[in-house]
Design goal:
about 130 residues, eight-stranded antiparallel sheet, 1 helix, about 50% strand
């Protein structure tokens, strides 16, 4: 009786551990901005930020933080790409002269994060991009 209860406990514990391995992981990266950029109407100053995203499939929720303070939360899409040689970002110049953050990519990864910022599609022209070499 005791043995079957112990076996049941071990089996249950291994199932719970296995299930947590399939949960949507939160993934982090570092973003270094070399110019002011806008994300959903919020201007981010040049500097280093932590980028964290989570979700399943190609659609994720992207959080950009400066230190421990979240500065922007935006939907994004994970898009396959060639293996990135460096980490960096790209932006699009808006009609008002500001730059809107459009993509973030990380060294050694085979994907990039496309930011679903609607202002980037209105009157946009290709703009600058940065690289964290």
């Amino acid at each position: 009786m005791k043995l079957s209860r112990n076996l049941f406990s071990v089996a249950l514990a291994s199932l719970l551990l296995g299930a947590s391995a399939f949960a949507a992981p939160t993934t982090k990266g570092t973003l270094k901005l070399f110019e002011p950029v806008t994300v959903q109407g919020k201007q981010l100053a040049p500097g280093q930020y932590t980028v964290e995203w989570n979700g399943e499939g190609p659609n994720v929720q992207l959080s950009i933080a400066s230190g421990k303070n979240a500065v922007a939360n935006v939907p994004a899409r994970v898009v396959p790409s060639a293996k990135n040689a460096t980490s960096g970002y790209s932006s699009t110049k808006q009609q008002d002269g500001s730059n809107s953050l459009t993509n973030v990519f990380f060294q050694g990864k085979t994907f990039e994060l496309q930011i679903a910022d609607q202002s980037a599609t209105q009157g946009a022209q290709p703009g600058a991009s940065g690289s964290n070499q």
